Amino acid sequence: MLNSLLSQYTRSLILVAVLLLIVILEVLEVRAAIYPGLLPFFEWARSSSWLGLIGTTYGSIYATVEAVHLLSMAVIGGTVLATDLRLLGVVFRDLPSETLTKGTHKVFSAALISAIATGIFCAAGVGDKVYYMEVFWIKMLALVAGSLFVFLVKQPLLNSMPHDEINPWTIRLLAVTSLLIWFTVAATGRWIGFS
After folding, report:
1. Number of domains in the chain
2. Which of 25, 149, 162, 193 allows an S-S link to 30, with CB 3.0 to 4.6 Å?
3. Backbone torsions φ then ψ of 76, nearest 5 degrees
């Protein structure tokens, strides 16, 4: 029984273990001990790295990369909405959910890579500013949680069997969880613009 459970849900259990580790590290205030040591890196990224120098010297390059970052995030949002709302039976009911989830996952993966690459450039350009923003750190945690959720839980489950063989409540829970995580990423990212 235990071996069957472990073999079926290995990735899910790994994700739960990682999330528990994050909670334990937060309770033990490990982040608070590491956090001050990150300031020199963010200052270096802003003033000494070539990413920071390009971002601060050439405003048009920074604005262009930031626009690509925002477009990448919009594509991520679109793929998440299309996939999760289809799983909830709200949109694209005439299209098999397996077809939609496989197609959008490829686009999601490309957009995520683009968003991370451009996000690193954008953060380097204002490294000394984002270091002090609590909302930036919340976005990074939500982004990591969302990425882990997609690649370790959502996609493996959706690819494991035909969707009509998966418990409908499991699919609904999966879709709602995904929507909540990625809404958090989008909302905190937008809040960075207000800070």
Report:
1. 1
2. 25
3. -60, -50
Q: What local confidence, expressed as pLDDT, does residue 91 receive? A: 79
Q: For residue range 151-186, list pLDDT tens digits in order.
A: 887 888 788 777 777 777 878 888 888 888 888 888
Q: Is residue 135 part of a domain?
A: yes
Q: What are the structure tokens assigned to 180, written together? A: 């909540």
Q: Please check whether residue 153 is in contact with residue 174, taking contact to mean a CB–CB distance below 8 angstroms.
A: yes
> Which segments of the chain does DSSP mark as H helices, in order?
2-8, 10-27, 30-47, 50-57, 59-87, 97-125, 127-130, 134-149, 155-160, 168-194
Between residues 165 and 30, the one the model is more confident about: 165
Domain span at residue 111 reads 39-194
31 contacts 25 by C-beta, under 8 angstroms: yes
Question: Is residue 12 included in any domain, yes or no?
Answer: no
